[in-house]
Amino acid sequence: MSLNATPSANRVHIGFFGCRNAGKSSVVNAVTGQELCIVSDTKGTTTDPVQKAMELLPLGPVVIIDTPGYDDEGELGELRVRRTRQVLNKTDIAVLVIDATVGMRQIDKELQILFEAKGIPYCIVYNKCDLAAAPDGDKILKVSAATGEGIFELKERIARLAAKDGPEPTLVGDLIAPGDLVVLVVPIDSSAPKGRLILPQQQVIRDIIDHHAMAVVTQDTELAETLKKLGTKPAMVITDSQVFGKAAAITPEDIPLTSFSILMARYKGLLDSAVEGAAAIRNLQEGDLILISEGCTHHRQCEDIGTVKLPRMLRQFTGKDIRFHTSSGTEFPEDLSAYRMVIHCGGCMLPAREMLYRMKCTEDQHLPITNYGTAIAYMQGILERSISMFPHLAKLFEE
Length: 399
What we know:
Number of helices: 14
Strand content: 15-25%
Order of helices and strands: EHEEHEHEEHEHEHEHEHHEHEEHEHHH
Strand order of the largest sheet: 2-3-1-4-5-6
Radius of gyration: 24 Å
Mean pLDDT: 87
Helix content: 25-40%
Distance between the termini: 44 Å
Largest sheet: 6 strands, mixed
């Protein structure tokens, strides 16, 4: 990923939904001004969700998602419909495309109910309005992908639906002041990407700079020397979770210490649940199955944290022969009944809406969820210290 590019997880995700041959792909192409999707009169031309990160005026950086027809049939069709439902979990704005020559069908109404149940802002687009009349309504727009009619108004409507009230959340900016010095501990080992930093590290550095503070980046092997040479006490030390214990031992107690993973969990809205869920680790029993879920797909190294290091830590901490199942990317089981708990990555590659969906899945099935950094801090006895800058969570340790 280019350092100049807005991460996909931070872009507004706009999903286009509807029945086959409603003209979803044609509307997507008209909105983007690009031939992003194949257009055909043949039903079911779009067989998998098509996703494209781009700039869309007047909104800015977005991810456009064209989905298969929600009325697809047969065994393959059911799989495609399931993929479409998965797209809903990361959709910030939904566009329901209806063929004006056919009108709204029961399938369209089912999609509308799904949008409302999931709290997704949406609009209803009657396409092919050059060929047939369409009803009026507050959420309804009349467009023609063929002539371009109504496409400008559709882009303006999407931008209004995406508008958010209040300040944008930050990773660390609200925890520091202008002029503060923040030390970042970034180990470089076999699991580190060659020639670059991982996304949470990039984002924290940018957030520190945006808030007119200063970032000092060092490896865990140089942390002690770095703190000695600074000549002033840093406002905070932020470490990679994999060296949490080492960083805690080196960093003086009067310096706040946390991890990139914990900050990312807060940014995604998961931290409160992650802190409460971490306590479930102590109650794990022989043979329990844990789901370790990652939001990205990557080539796994011999010392991969999700499949090697974390399972090893959990077995050593509990003294139990615990079993593990891993999921990655967009795959996340709807049925979690086989698992004792879920341990998630920081979720840097997932939109906040999808992260919250996964959290709600665990809550609905009464399953504890935590994340990598929180779990590691708990097992190493430093969780209380690592969340001390969040008073409402620190109170949990006073009870």
